[in-house]
Amino acid sequence: xxxxxxxxxxxxxxxxxxxxxxxxxxxxxxxxxxxxxxxxxxxxxxxxxxxxxxxxxxxxxxxxxxxxxxxxxxxxxxxxxxxxxxxxxxxxxxxxxxxxxxxxxxxxxxxxxxxxxxxxxxx
Length: 123
Hints:
33% of the residues lie in helices and 15% in strands. It has a three-stranded parallel beta sheet with strand order 3-4-5. A two-stranded antiparallel sheet has the order 1-2.
């Protein structure tokens, strides 16, 4: 699995503006996290998938049909969510416990996903 951990170090200043979609480079991830006010926590095990080919491969592993219900736990910045939607899934539910990341997912995917904010084990 290709992931990167973006730590709590200060992002570089004067870089490109944060994208408004799903970020796919370490720089875009840093800028997006800074924009939404999230400092990733190693304690929480936060890491973000960057490689769209890996995201597509993981989405394909679900073998889900278009109308099958799919649950993604920990949507993060939406890399896997985006790959699952590219497969044409019509019933994708995403659970994200960080309200700032959940808001980002809601803004990015809107009505294309069913979104819950909270701990998946408690929901």
